[in-house]
Amino acid sequence: MEAIDSPKRQLNKYGKSEVYGRTSGAINTIESVVILLCLCAVLPAQSKAKTIVPRFDDYPVFEKLPNRNAPVIIPKEGLIFRARLQEAAMQQPNFAGHYILTTWGCGMECLMGAVIDTKIGKIYQIPFTICCFGDQLTESSKPIKFFLNSKLIIFYGKRNEDDNDTKKHYYIFDKNFFIEMQ
């Protein structure tokens, strides 16, 4: 009579000998723990290596452009930039469907800006300045990248002149807020 835990040798469909049957429970437990530990070590490394970079196509906007822009409503804190905002408000939308993104200089290699809602004339200030972007750009690129048909916006350089903040910054402009993507 054959023992329950003894392996059986059989030929597989390719004619090779394989061992079937039960092995001791202790070996299965140890093998399972080793496999689980290996997976735990490998999976986080793979997830870090495959960081997904946001693309403009991933955040589409499908909107019909307004026939006329609404008059711009300049808030008290925006009065210093009144001429620039009024000039920009006369342009066609260039960002996220019906918005106009406009920027102006705030020093050497420094930009600040705002988004104008052409439907209602409201202004949303970009919540930081962008500076020191020279080494991240080519001659044909700009420190802020955006498109009419996407609500994704990419800022290159340091936000508010923070020396520890030198990467690309991805934001979504959604429901009139700049939302940083991690």
Question: What this model shows, in words?
Answer:
- With 182 residues, this protein is α+β, with helices and mostly antiparallel strands.
- The chain folds into two domains: 8-49, no CATH class; 56-180, no CATH class.
- Helix content is 18%, strand content 27%.
- The strands form three sheets. Strands 3, 4, 5, 6 and 9 form a five-stranded antiparallel beta sheet that branches. Strands 7-8-10-11 form a four-stranded antiparallel beta sheet, with no helix packed on it. Strands 1-2 form a two-stranded antiparallel ribbon.
- A hairpin with a 2-residue loop joins strand 10 (168-174) and strand 11.
- The radius of gyration is 29 Å and the shape is globular.
- The termini are far apart.
Instruction: Indicate how many domains the architecture comprises.
Output: 2
What is the general shape? Answer: globular
Parts with pLDDT < 50 across at least 5 consecutive residues: none
Estimate the helix proportion, in percent.
10-25%
Tell me the number of helical segments per DSSP (H or I, 4 or more residues long): 2
Give the biggest beta sheet: 5 strands, antiparallel
Beta-strand percentage range: 25-35%
Rounded mean pLDDT score: 81
What is the string of SSEs from the N terminus onward?
EEHHEEEEEEEEE
From the alpha carbons, calculate the radius of gyration and give it in angstroms: 29 Å
Structural class: alpha+beta
